Amino acid sequence: xxxxxxxxxxxxxxxxxxxxxxxxxxxxxxxxxxxxxxxxxxxxxxxxxxxxxxxxxxxxxxxxxxxxxxxxxxxxxxxxxxxxxxxxxxxxxxxxxxxxxxxxxxxxxxxxxxxxxxxxxxxxxxxxxxxxxxxxxxxxxxxxxxxxxxxxxxxxxxxxxxxxxxxxxxxxxxxxxxxxxxxxxxxxxxxxxxxxxxxxxxxxxxx
Length: 207
Known about the structure:
This protein is α/β, with parallel strands linked by helices. The chain has helices at 15-25, 78-81, 123-140, 170-185, and strands spanning 11-13, 34-44, 47-56, 65-69, 72-76, 87-90, 101-103, 144-152, 155-162, 191-194.
């Protein structure tokens, strides 16, 4: 077992959900040694898909978040921690509905995961590389593209074209996709500004 220390809660478990989970755990062998393990298993539409299971505490790996919710130990695998911050596990609002409900304020990027991109050069050069190598190939599947207009201090000004211009989903794409990718890959940038004339598109977003 990798040595771990008690950490702040990544995902909270409500009292009703915890009671139900402890009931289920009690039916397992060596229940006292089992933790609730919750990880992001993939993406389903615009939401993350999750895998919930009971796992022995001695299977914790380096980087995993391990903490207690009351008497229930919880394990969040390292690769899921950042995407589950602030989530809450609860029972459904309808008592007749079985199962658990995981409410996560985080959403997967509509353009995919671009963490770990290898970029070199100035801030402007790195942003252009990110667009050319990673973002525009993803946007091309929607018939669109994005370009860097200029960098002014810690702000990057971009424009979108093709299927992204005037698209009702363009702001979601910018905020959740392009902005997140730029801020993650180029830490010198703290704000991404869309200067596209969306009113000129076929489906005007701004009018």
